[in-house]
Amino acid sequence: MFGSFPDHGPSSHPKNPGSNNIPYLRFMKIKVGFGFDVHQMKAGHPFVVGGVTLDHHAGAFGHSDADVLAHAICDAILGAANLEDIGYHFPNTDDRWKGANSLDLLRHCIKLIKDKGFELGNIDGMLCLEAPKIKPYIPQMKANIAEAAGISVEDVSIKATTNEQMGFIGREEGVVAYAVCLLEKTNY
Ligand SMILES: [Zn+2]
């Protein structure tokens, strides 16, 4: 009930009535965001994922460096703050983003959410691709994403799975990434 924690400010908080047994949540708004991205794979093309260039015979193709994981994370962050999507902020018709390092796009998304009063809490990313094996690259991907997003490596999760050789992912015609994130706004 309200008033159970008199050491944590006023005895009621009209904007956050459901958190009355967790005092700090009375003054914090949290928002979840979801992102998805897909890119075509082309033979001989560089394969950049999470800011790491993978050793592979083919890579993702796109207007920027086609970093499918960074793009899914950008969309999750933008979505949580209700700031449209990555295509809105970085249109593929704009030459400024041609060949862009997608970690710079991520940095820009962080600036946008901070301008709206949010802080990034954590990221959970999921890659879906047939090859190469991602595990050896994950520590560096986490470090790159954490640095660009301005959060601890401990708050960046990156996981990977294959598509069990089915569909366009199984045929290595494309690569997919999903991401969720949490944004926090204190003193809400
Ligand atoms: Zn993309």
SSE topology string = EEEEHHHEHEHE
Tell me the strand percentage band. Answer: 25-35%
- The CATH architecture can be named as 2-Layer Sandwich
Q: What is the CATH domain class?
A: Alpha Beta
Count of helical stretches: 5
Explain this structure.
The protein is built from 5 helices and 7 strands, in the order E-E-E-E-H-H-H-E-H-E-H-E. It is an alpha+beta fold and 188 residues long. It has a single domain (29-186), classed as 2-C-methyl-D-erythritol 2,4-cyclodiphosphate synthase (60s Ribosomal Protein L30, Chain: A, 2-Layer Sandwich). The protein has a 5-stranded mixed sheet with strand order 4-1-7-5-6. It has a two-stranded antiparallel sheet with strand order 2-3.
For this entry, give a set of tags.
188 residues; globular; disordered N terminus; 5 helices; 7 strands; five-stranded mixed sheet; 60s Ribosomal Protein L30, Chain: A; binds zinc ion; two-stranded antiparallel ribbon; alpha+beta
What's the helix and strand layout?
Elements lengths: L27 E16 L3 E3 L2 E3 L3 E4 L6 H13 L5 H4 L12 H14 L3 E10 L9 H12 L6 E6 L5 H4 L3 E13 L2
Parallel strand pairs: 5-6
Antiparallel strand pairs: 1-4, 1-7, 2-3, 5-7
Zinc ion (ZN) binds next to strand 1 and helix 1.
Could you provide a short overview of the structure?
With 188 residues, this protein is of the alpha+beta class. The protein has helices spanning 68-80, 86-89, 102-115, 138-149, 167-170; strands at 28-43, 47-49, 52-54, 58-61, 119-128, 156-161, 174-186.
